[in-house]
Design brief:
This protein is mostly helical. The chain has helices at about 5-20, 30-40, 40-50, 60, 80-85, 90-95, 100-110, 115-120, 165-170, 170-175, 185-190, 195-205, 215-220, 245-255, 270-275, 280-295, 300-335, 360-380, 385-415, and strands spanning about 140, 145-150. A hairpin with a 2-residue loop joins strand 1 and strand 2 (about 145-150).
Length: about 425
């Protein structure tokens, strides 16, 4: 054997031994690729550029029942349980966090079942992101509509079929879901000093890119897949030591259907608990806040961190003050019969019906809650004062003026009606 060939043989043998020593066998190309190179070539290309192609084949995730174009229905769709076989720690972290409750959140909305099939089941609306948290291929009936469990949550960040960790570590992996109307975190972060610094350094000095935080730095410290925050999506916490603020929050909880007009808990409180969209004990809020404080203090002084969190919290209070007044104005119209309520509807405007409302004033209230209040409070924590002001706080002031004027006009017209 010539020297060059002998060295190549030794190197190949050593690689095989190292792979076996690591507990993995070197995967060979799957016979599935012979067909899929013709019908879905990019899928094959993506898989083979990923690290998993070195130790797995198609059957590792899709099973062995599907062998030809005649039995496509037998191909298994991966679920979080599939990923858990190799990534137990990450899967358990994910399942304990808020992302795993994505479907719970969208199903909790009282009008979800009224949406077009394409919007939810077809994933062209809320269903496009809120498939997270699905764990199996089964179907189940919910409020008279069929919701499919698509499974494979990991692909939302580790895009199939490469399932690249490098891609998932970039902030754009979060952008698909966290942008736009009610959760413009991408726009807030990317326009903040944090985001601008990270993106500029990634382009011109990759070795310095980590001198500013990206989404994963704060929300997934150390690679923790749990993903949670102190305020939650609705920016609601209980109890509240500030009596004035608690008054605003009680009104908001009535608008969310969690409290009845007398302030007593309703059945919807169980839904809020199941979706973990609010912090319902002081310990729960403080625990999540402490996690973020530790991350911030890696770059900033304790005083700086404390002051910024305090002022961001106060932005939530100022937003709540305006929203509470607006809710009470519309609730007064319900009470006095100026707005005719749907049969069985609560005595307060139901903010979670979203845009399925019958009057202009209810539509303005919905946008005030779901768009402008969200931006007012979220931008404070994402360090974007422009978004907090012009897309949030100022818009809420405009909403409140419009709601006051519309209410006065509606009352005059109602009084003049024979």
């Amino acid at each position: 054997m010539k020297k060059g060939r002998r060295m190549l043989w030794i190197a190949s043998a050593a690689a095989a031994v190292l792979a076996l020593a690591a507990g993995t066998a070197m995967a060979r190309p799957s016979p599935c690729e012979d067909c899929h190179k013709k019908i879905s070539p990019k899928m094959v290309e993506d898989f083979n550029r990923g690290k998993m192609s070195r130790v797995l084949t198609c059957k590792s995730c899709h099973g062995t029942a599907h062998t030809s174009e005649k039995d496509v229905a037998k191909a298994q769709l991966p679920t979080i349980a599939t990923c858990k076989r190799c990534h137990k720690k990450q899967a358990e972290q994910y399942l304990s966090g808020k992302h795993a409750l994505g479907l719970v959140a969208v199903q909790a909305m009282p009008r979800t079942h009224m949406q077009p099939k394409a919007f939810v089941e077809g994933q062209k609306g809320c269903g496009g992101c809120h498939t997270l948290g699905l764990t199996g291929p089964e179907q189940r009936e919910t409020e008279g509509r069929r919701y499919y469990k698509y499974g494979m949550d990991c692909q939302n960040c580790h895009t199939r079929h490469a399932f690249s960790k490098a891609e998932a570590l970039e902030p754009e992996a979060c952008q698909t879901c966290h942008m736009g109307f009610d959760h413009a975190q991408w726009e807030m972060w990317s326009g903040s000093k944090h985001g601008v610094t990270y993106l500029m350094n990634r382009a011109i000095a990759p070795d310095r890119r980590d001198r500013a935080p990206k989404c994963q730095t704060c929300h997934m410290p150390g690679g923790d897949h749990r993903v949670f925050s102190a305020w939650g999506f609705l920016a609601v916490r209980l109890p509240e030591d500030d009596a004035e603020w608690m008054g605003y929050r009680a009104t908001i909880l009535k608008g969310l259907g969690v409290l009845d007009p007398e302030g007593n808990p309703t059945a919807r409180l169980d839904i809020v608990k199941a979706g973990k969209v609010a912090r319902l004990t002081k310990a729960a809020f403080d625990e999540e806040r402490a996690r973020f404080v530790k991350v911030c203090e890696k770059c900033h002084s304790p005083n700086f961190v404390r002051e910024n969190f305090k002022n961001a919290d106060l932005m939530v209070k100022e937003a709540d003050k305006m929203l509470a007044e607006a809710i009470e104005i519309v609730a007064g119209l319900y009470k006095d019969g100026v707005i005719e309520r749907r049969e069985g509807a609560p005595a307060y405007p139901d903010l979670l019906t979203f845009y399925d409302v019958n009057t202009k004033i209810e539509e303005v209230l919905y946008e005030m809650f779901m768009d402008h209040r969200m931006k007012a409070f979220q931008a404070g924590f994402h360090m974007n004062p422009d978004y907090a002001t012009w897309y949030g706080f100022a818009k809420m002031k405009k909403d409140l003026v419009e709601i006051r004027e519309l209410a006065a006009k509606m009352r005059r017209e109602h009084a003049a009606t024979p």
